[in-house]
Amino acid sequence: MNRAFLFIILGASLWGTIGWFVKNLYTFGFTPMEVVTLRAWTAAITLVLYLLLTAREKLKLTSIKDLKYFIGTGIFSIIFFNYCMFTAIELATIPVATALLYTAPAFVVILSALLFNEKLSITKLSALCTTLFGTCLVVGLIPFDAASLHVGAILFGLGSGIGYALYSIISKFALRKYSSLSITTYTFLIAALALVPFFPYFEKLHLLSDPKVLFYAFGLGLLPTAFAYIIYTYGLHYTEASKASILTTVEPVVAACIGVFIFEEAFSVIQMIGMACIIFAVILIQKNDTKKRILPSSIRNSDIPHGKNPD
Q1: Rounded to whole angstroms, how far apart are CA atoms 232 and 285?
Q2: Which residues span the domain enclosing 175?
Q3: How far is CA 64 from CA 69, 71, 75, 209, in A?
Q4: Is the CB of residue 138 less than 8 Å from the CB of residue 278?
């Protein structure tokens, strides 16, 4: 297999482990917002150090006014999407939360039509319908299953998809001046600073002295965040973004396996079919237009428009 493909698949697989770190942090009494804070800070520290050592020029701001882009991606996307996703994991299961997160490309198609007047082609409409059908299967609306239906989990799960989509919409403007790695670094840095008031330092700072907590906290910010993004970006340099987008659909598969086999979470055949429909819709959207698309299948490569890597 092409080495670039291996890096992309490895990066996507690491993204799929997010639920594992989150679930383990919950066992120590952390709330979803506190886990978001831990992820933002550890990712920001790792990414800033990485750029200081490898490409300091990518930390330079063209204008202080450009911070508005990173406030948008950091607060309205990263914080919102992570909080919704981590809450969905707490209320439901990792597979369900991940499947709902992957409705993001469908939301981008809708937002792009409203904000950028992009045409809704037959292919895009088909993908939207497939996503809607798959979502109904995953959450228990088709066939109706009152036992598995959790309104809160559905709302937070769909909220994570919307937040996920906003990253693409907002970063589209920032990419006129900055590389994808610069945007990601500043995004997590702004998110980390914005989350400072939301962590109960007096009550839970002592938990960070526990080696296990440190492992899960820094592991969350390092492996499925900073490191995954860096190796994905490296792989993207040597392959087409459209192909990379399709390869990243390994993420929900890995997440589902972790939920089912490690945490023994329920995930029925019907729900698996629903997830497959959502993944199929993602691929359909990616293949629809590789030159003018806005969002690949995840937040990590969603800031690369026109099928090219700005780096």
Answers
A1: 20
A2: 3-298
A3: 10, 12, 17, 37
A4: yes
In a domain, 38, yes or no: yes
Would residue 310 count as lying in a domain? Answer: no
d(CA 182, CA 123): 33
Nearest to 137 by CA among 282, 297, 277: 277
Please state the domain count of the chain: 1
Give tens-digit pLDDT for 208-253.
Answer: 999 999 999 999 999 999 999 889 888 877 877 667 778 888 999 9
50-53 LR contacts (CB < 8 Å, sep 24+): 50/226, 50/230, 51/181, 51/182, 51/185
Alpha carbon of 40 to those of 36, 238, 251, 258: distances in Å? Answer: 6, 28, 20, 23
Query: How far separated are the first and last CA of the chain, in Å rounded?
Result: 24
Give 58-97 pLDDT, tens digit per residue: 999 999 999 999 999 999 999 999 999 999 999 999 999 9
Assigned domain for 308 exists: no
Strands (E), 198-263: none
Residue 240 phi/psi, 5-degree rounding, is -80, 140
| 303 domain-assigned | no
Q: Kindly tell me the burial class for residue 119, based on how many C-beta atoms sit within 10 Å of its own C-beta (0-12, 13-18, 19 or more).
A: exposed
Q: What is the dihedral of CA 189, 159, 33, 78, to 10 degrees?
A: -10
- Tokens for 299, please give them: 């937040």
Cβ(301)–Cβ(248) below 8 Å: yes
User: 271 to each of 99, 126, 155, 278, 281, how far by Cα in Å?
Assistant: 9, 20, 17, 11, 15
Residue with tokens 């997010």: 18
